[in-house]
Amino acid sequence: MKKLALVVAFGFALAGCGKHEKPNFNYMPDMHFSPAIKAQEGIQRLPVAGTIPRGYEPYPYQNLDPVQAGKLHINPLPRTKQALLRGQQLFNTYCIVCHGPYGEGDGYVVPKYPRPPSLQSDKVKNYADGSIYNVITLGQNLMSSYASQVAPQDRWAIIHYIRALQKAKNPTPDDLKYVEKRTQDLAR
Ligand code: HEC
């Protein structure tokens, strides 16, 4: 009897070894063969062909030079306080990690990620808004497109904010007069 018990135990032990490509003997198959469906398998509905998201504006260029783009697209968004605040929020969400708080290329991921060129450069200062729009929409070399993350109106808002950052670093005498007046008004 003892021998038999040993053989049986050994048999079980062996049964547990080897590759498990096929399940072993199913002695309680309760939920073993449940008709599992992978998440979203078969139930995901694709949008009808030609569907576009609300507010979608086609950008019919794959490869457009920023300078050229600057001549084609004019910022349609008025530079209001609301637009600037929106631009600030989005810049700080999507761009600051690489470009840094003032766009100087000192974002948190640098230098693990290659340092981007400064947005305070004469090149970008002299860019028309449409040129920056083009970079955000199509990407440029190492920088990928942000078209799917940032809606068109929001791209224009970010551009207003980049202009504000440029002004903040290089105020004109007129800007300074405004700041002085604001300070006096607030002190009253
Ligand atoms: C993952 C890092 C990263 C993020 C995030 C990022 N950029 Fe860039 N950006 C770069 C790099 C790198 C370049 C330089 C690409 C090249 O070599 O031409 C660049 C280039 C640019 C340029 C062109 C500068 C020039 O001198 O040609 C603009 C404008 C710009 N980015 C704006 C933005 C804006 C606006 C956002 C947010 C919507 C953003 N970037 C997000 C990395 C990033």
Report on the structure:
The protein has 188 residues and is mainly α. It has a domain at 66-187: Orthogonal Bundle (Cytochrome Bc1 Complex, Chain D, domain 2). 47% of the residues lie in helices and 0% in strands. It is built from seven helices and no strands. The longest helix is centred in the middle third of the chain and has 19 residues, at 81-99. It is elongated and about 100 Å long. The site of heme C has 23 residues, from helix 3, helix 4 and helix 5. Heme C is lined by residues 94-95, 97-99, 113-114, 116-117, 119, 121, 123-124, 132, 135-136, 140-143, 146, 150, 158.
The CATH topology of one domain comes to Cytochrome Bc1 Complex, Chain D, domain 2
Low-pLDDT runs of 5+ residues are: none
Name of the CATH first level of one domain? Mainly Alpha
Roughly what fraction of the amino acids lie in strands? under 5%
Small molecules bound in the structure, each named once: heme C
DSSP summary, beta strand count: 0
Q: In the CATH hierarchy, what is the superfamily of one domain?
A: Cytochrome c-like domain
Gross morphology is elongated
**Percent in helix:** 40-55%
* Structural classification: mainly alpha
Mean pLDDT: 88
Report a brief summary of the structure.
This protein has 7 helices and no strands. The protein has 188 residues and is mostly helical.
State the main characteristics:
188 residues, mainly alpha, Cytochrome Bc1 Complex, Chain D, domain 2, binds heme C
How are the secondary structure elements laid out?
Layout: H1 2-15, H2 66-72, H3 81-99, H4 122-126, H5 129-138, H6 152-169, H7 173-187
Bound molecules: heme C (HEC).
The site of heme C has 23 residues, from α3, α4 and α5.
